[in-house]
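Problem 12. The chain below contains 509 residues. Write out its predicted structure in token notation.
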Amino acid sequence: MQLDKDLQAMQEMRDAVKRAKAAQSQFQAFSQQDVDRIVKALADAAFGKAFELASLAVEETGLGVVEHKVIKNQVASRDVYASIRDLKTVGVINEFRDKKIIELAAPFGVIAGIVPTTNPTSTAIFTSLIALKARNAIVFSPHPSAAKCTVEAARICSRAAVAAGAPEGLIGWITQPTMEATEGLMKHADIHLILATGGSALVKAAYSSGKPAYGVGPGNVPVYIEKSAEIAKAVQRIVDSKTFDHGTICASEQAVVVDRVIREMVMREFKNQGAYFLNEEEKKRLEPLISPAPGKLNSKIVGRSAKAIADMAGVHVPSETRLLIAEESQIGRDVPFSIEKLAPVFAFYTAAGWEEAAVICEQLLDLGGRGHTLALHTTDDEIARTFALRMPVSRIVVNTPSALGAVGSTTGLQPSFTLGCGSFGGNITSDNLTAHHLMTVKRLAYGIKQVDIPKPAIQTYPVSKSTGQPNQEERIAEFVNLVLDKVGATGHVDKATVIKLVQQVMAHI
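Solution.
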């Protein structure tokens, strides 16, 4: 029965949180050396299982490409570990002698990790690494369609950590997740932080839980090929990026905007790279498949190959087709090719120049990608800086595959599988999340400046014999006398009238 499954999931979640809390209370007392040894063991174990976990993920979900998921798992383990290896997360982490301030690290506690179906094993590896590096425990709620591979990734990380000296239960999970159990996990009294990677509804639920949360928004990423770009290289990078793991990375390009003067050359190069340009009839067949309702992406095309998607729509394309492209001029929720498509499907826009291209990119971002990423191919640094200043995104990646550049694989950005969208996207941070986001920094601050605080003037008033409080009438009379003295009043001034007026004003006050 469904009810039994819900109850079982809820109980499993509660048990996992209980174990995680007990384990974390021990783990937070570990030394930096102990923490680093455990984190390295975890990273090594996950890296060694990169292929096995990638195969499990594709087998269970039917999404993506095994070879590409291997790369994701390797980045999530090896590259992420390299980026946090030397980070101090225990005790004193900084000392500013000139300001007499000492910074000390403290863990959040127990973290709830919500894992998406598109990156089910790499996200679990990455989150386990950064959580433990900051001396937290973590409990995972996988996507129901990817529960087995996510749990296996978490189990591999847990075994390696325990073998290296970590307390049992530091990494936990729900084997049969339900929406009720996921919501219960996020609201559990012993959960101190939420890492939510998934759809907008899930991220909103995380932010509404009453707990500190890092959620990420959608990534309707535009890519602009400016007239000065090296066209062959730009197109190859874009095709490699958009087809990487069949487009399941949220930072992958969703629409290409091309300067009109290079349009024909760009289209020819896309065809050389295995792209297929749909005619109007084929485009109309694909539109309802991409989006059965305005603004809604059909999950059946997510992570599928271009050939498989074309077959679903009844469109015949060559077997070697890597990418489906349709020319588009409109942008909106009711324009399927303009929304985020986590699949090798592209919209192709033509612009008169960079000013019009900027407007198109802004409209695409407003449709569903504000705060995330914009990709740019140009050799004009002034154009790159202009777009960086203007675009409402947290990452502008230049002359690199967006899917890999945004996560820090081909750029100097922090390697991460949780990409903040900042205030543009309603997130608390625009950073690529890592270990330092999962710890609290305490500050010991010594006084270094003297401030002279003046004493208040002492003013006495007549005291009423009956109440022991200042006599109101006598205070008013005193005030009036001071006013009259100040203005040099003569006997012609009606003192009683002034007193009456003052009483009326004070009554209103």
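Discussion. The two ends are 68 Å apart (CA to CA). Students who got a different answer should revisit the alignment rule from Section 12.3.
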